[in-house]
Design brief:
It is built from 5 helices and 3 strands; from the N terminus they run H-E-H-E-H-E-H-H. With 117 residues, it is mainly alpha-helical.
Length: 117
Amino acid sequence: MEIMKEYASGLRGVIHCYSYSAEMAKEYVKMGYYIGIGGVVTFKNAKKLKQVVQEIPLESIVLETDCPYLAPVPYRGKRNSSLYLPYVAEEIAALKGAAAEDVVLQTEENARKLYGL
């Protein structure tokens, strides 16, 4: 974190497959990074990641597959696929008290901004 604060100022990117604290996620968001959320958020024991999703703005989240790993429930343990992203969006929506369609639209916009599309 300290190295990124010192040398990555003004850069943008994704903190891939995020699995740390909400406090640390907020620091990355302040630096302008997106937080990558994938299938792990659907796991029952992913309490810390669920808290992160609840505490950071939807405008700072991008959806990830981490294919072939970390498929969401109900495909946990199987090969992951981008076809399963709706499960991730639905879980984020439930945690945020939002519609899954709104999560999809916002995270798509986030990706467009990130990649300059």
